[in-house]
């Protein structure tokens, strides 16, 4: 997974916005257990599903990108939660244990 700096992530978001694309940012807001990325880790996503950054080291990025594209379309932010107690965790690959909460919002 791409461990881009905050500066790189913000620059990519701005470049996509300047190109007329819808953009969302996903940010880790809470972790428990063996979550591979710390609170504050970010992922920037454009309306086509391109992304830069990491919120989980590859465990849930695909699911977060899918949700982010929906957030771009609707404009409604959402909180995502993945963990071993959540049946979604096994589907997206967060079987290493722990939980992760990711806030996804559209960039205006």
Automatic annotation (TrEMBL):
Residues 16-83 form the XdhC- CoxI domain. Pfam families: XdhC_CoxI (PF02625). It comes from the Bacteria. This is Xanthine/CO dehydrogenase XdhC/CoxF family maturation factor.
């Amino acid at each position: 997974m791409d461990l881009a700096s905050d500066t790189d992530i913000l620059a990519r978001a701005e470049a996509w916005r300047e190109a007329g694309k819808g953009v969302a940012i996903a940010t880790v807001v809470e972790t428990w257990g063996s979550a591979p990325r710390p609170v504050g880790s970010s992922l920037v996503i454009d309306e086509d599903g391109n992304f830069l950054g990491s919120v989980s080291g590859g465990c849930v990025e695909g699911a977060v990108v899918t949700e982010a594209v929906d957030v771009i379309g609707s404009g409604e932010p959402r909180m995502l939660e993945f963990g071993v107690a959540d049946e979604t965790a096994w589907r997206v690959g967060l079987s290493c244990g722990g939980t992760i909460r990711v806030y996804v919002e559209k960039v205006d």
